[in-house]
Amino acid sequence: MKMIAMVKEFDRNIITIAGGPHISGLADHTMRIVKDLDYGFCGEAEAGIVKFCRIMAGEDGAALSGVPGLVYRKDGRVMINERAIVEDLDKLEFPEWDLIDPRTYPVAPQGTFTKRLPVAPILTSRGCPYECTYCGVKSNTGRKYRTRSPENVIAEIELLVSKYAVREIHIEDDNFTLDRNRVVRFCNLLIDKKIDISWACPNGVRLDTLDADILKLMERAGCYSFAIGIESGSPKF
Question: Which residue of 88, 171, 198, 222 has the lowest C-beta tally within 10 Å?
């Protein structure tokens, strides 16, 4: 809120936009509380943000009501457009790592510690089919579980290693180990290609997706740490 206020104090014509978990979960509340916020996006914004920018630049005559996921004000009301999700995550381009060079990150940008530096965060899936009451995933990326192929993930890791000297990967998925076959394929590719990295899952994995075999394979592939979710203190639930 302070940052947005500073921007508007500098120039009221600068357009301010918010995205991420807070506005995705509390869109109406956020727009009413943060008076200097012009627009927001709920959920995944890859398609919507491009269309929005074209409208703002006068290159697209479409109405704001046609921008997926957009949150905006109209006649004193907060309008929240229907979201869009990316079905095929492999079609998304890799991040512009030159603009967020991992070599400039602080020592522990994700989680509480790292083993090797530089470290880079990646997402290999979106969504989670479970309904844990305390979790905000369904407000952000939804309950439909979608994944990048292991080959696509490995290609990004190879880019990070070769171009940015990255030595550790933090997989920030909400449920990385849900698809056992995909984890096996991912680990085997790391091993077969002899990619020298350490990796961790600081965002956590479900206990019921793990067993001795998958843990041993993950360790062989360079995994050294992960958080776990304790969904209930009772085995019955």
Answer: 88
